[in-house]
């Protein structure tokens, strides 16, 4: 029977169900070949000839395909319908050439959705592999290899502690670093706004904002001080007001287009708190289950039959009035739109989220988002009435404005409204019926609650003139009918994953399939950390960015990277030759590499030191030189590297002065240097700062005591405010609590690598609060230790978090809790759960797939059927079984690839090659 090859076993299972018993469907498990991580994999001297290597994990999958082809030489390549999918098909064909006889029938089929109709229609319209798409992949892969494999070693040699660079990864990192520098350079500007609570003659209240004063229209910064705000407040409170005009204008809002990859990632981040990687993982499962169309696309157009199905669903669920007279058509504006792909939409418009009842929480939420966005995109516009009310004093010295809107017809908003990254300032307040010429009465005590809350927050109250009251950031008149609020301009916000993807899309950097992996890579490299969903550059990321901007400015240029993406699109369209594009790139890039060959590390550090000076040496409060060493007051501070890698700030008077500090302090604290806290028991107690942060030390290092007692400052303790008593407490740890009441063994409390703990013999139990280490008593300590024993420690077999049922080959499948997170256990196979999958949401199919993938990586550590293992173990104990030992050793041979995998960091830096499986 014909052999159909797809990327993943889940996809294979679904397609085999549609095709029936006439086809054999097998999975390649993603790419079967890649460039080996070594010099010469792309031969720049031989027209960029590329040397491919079959991955060890892929050999058995290829063998299964080859074995199936022995019975039928009909090969159908059905990988994903994008550039990456085309590349996987090409790799498969190349790797299977030796197994295909003359006259073998090889074809390529693609489908945008895994439904029976889509699959059977695709099988009826086979084609050959699209060579321009493959050429675009080859160019991209070669570019990423040449940049990553040649630039990363330069970083390792010239910038200790740096891990890697990549063609797209480094540009993404630059975006985050540039934004952080904008934030640091930002100077807040003060301004005030004045508001009043007014009432109609019928007593209905509404809020208005001061927009003109002394006959002049107010701009944002016209009320720049509290004094000016107080004068404006007095002007409002001392005048009778009336409604000068009421203008009501109809307005409408059209729905958003259906999702493409980037907008799906942005909405999943905004509404579901889902990272780009987690979003794409959930979307992949939905696609493989046949519930949505292909999820890697730049397209927003929808197939005509899908549009009509959406209209039918709208009519059935919401009625005729929500259906526009004609279908809505959406077209792409992006210049680098990916090869003709439809938008991301449900395959069945009638399959609303409540009908599907998906068990996986992330898939259920994401499908709900996709279904609502798709249905809303074909619904009637929302209609509203926006009202603007102008209020003025009789002498026209004071003018206020009230705005609001009334929803006349909700339209698509009944189903869906797009989230926002930041406040866009749209005023949705409802206004009462207001008539031109009527009085606008000031309402007393309207702002009393706001005043109370402002005072409760604490801080310095604003000085108020007679007739007014002040609180931190607030002034109100004595009648509390009007208020002046203090504001400060805000710096641009740090990027979230959603706004990062949006910005990369605007600049034309990367592809939809790469966004998730790029953002993940820079976090994995410790160049960026995520805090409260915001991306913050680490010092290491700053150093790498400044180095690249200094010595390779062209290759971290936004325009250059976007132009290169355009050239790759032109290759995929057949308008450019991929080797010519590589040739032009390599000619200039190799010269830039040669230009750094003579660089000394000291030169690099000096250049980075100068570039980062505003960040490393912020202005001092006393106006002194920020580079003067605060310890010796003689040496100057500069950037230094440590023997073990990384960088720190040190004094030029070393070794006489040993002042050091990290490049930046955590959580915005002011970096602190060495200082003496006092004496205890005849020893000098000092606060010092090393590469890993501040610590306290008893005495000084000497020949007799080369390593004096030290203790790191726990998280949550500010080093700048640390006193002698706290330091002595830290140096006295671990603290004896007393003998255990059952066995008399001493219980101790201390702070270790994993935080505060209590210890009983060799058993440890964590404590939640650092301060409790110094106060915990016997009863509490015994309780904590007992609770740890119940949960299961090293001495007891841990209870499963969840029982998944029997494996098809026998034996239970369990979800266990491990030191590094939950994992699936079957026989001797332990497969870690992906970060975006919780034990509660894990399905049996997902568990089997994780087990199969893990078993494929470690064939020598598992057997297919655990039940058959006991006799084999018994036989191994017999004398005649000794000859089997060499075979066992041979089976472990693939493990020798581990060092090569580590080296692949240099290759896998661009984050542009995605394993579609």
TrEMBL record:
It catalyses: ATP-independent breakage of single-stranded DNA, followed by passage and rejoining. GO terms for cellular component: chromosome. The record marks 31, 140-141, 144, 156, 296, 525 as: Interaction with DNA. PROSITE patterns: TOPO_IA_1, TOPO_IA_2, TOPRIM. InterPro entries: Topo_IA, Topo_IA_2, Topo_IA_AS, Topo_IA_cen, Topo_IA_cen_sub1, Topo_IA_cen_sub2, Topo_IA_cen_sub3, Topo_IA_core_domain. Residues 164-169 are annotated as: Interaction with DNA. One of its GO terms (biological process) is DNA topological change. Keywords: DNA-binding, Isomerase, Magnesium, Metal-binding, Topoisomerase, Zinc, Zinc-finger. Its EC number is 5.6.2.1. Residues 869-878 have a biased composition (Low complexity). It comes from the Bacteria. The active site is at residue 294. Residues 879-900 have a biased composition (Basic residues). GO terms for molecular function: DNA binding; DNA topoisomerase type I (single strand cut, ATP-independent) activity; zinc ion binding. The keyword Glycosyltransferase does not apply. PANTHER family: DNA TOPOISOMERASE (PTHR42785:SF1), DNA TOPOISOMERASE, TYPE IA, CORE (PTHR42785). This is DNA topoisomerase 1. The lineage of its organism: Bacteria, Pseudomonadati, Pseudomonadota, Alphaproteobacteria, Rhodobacterales.
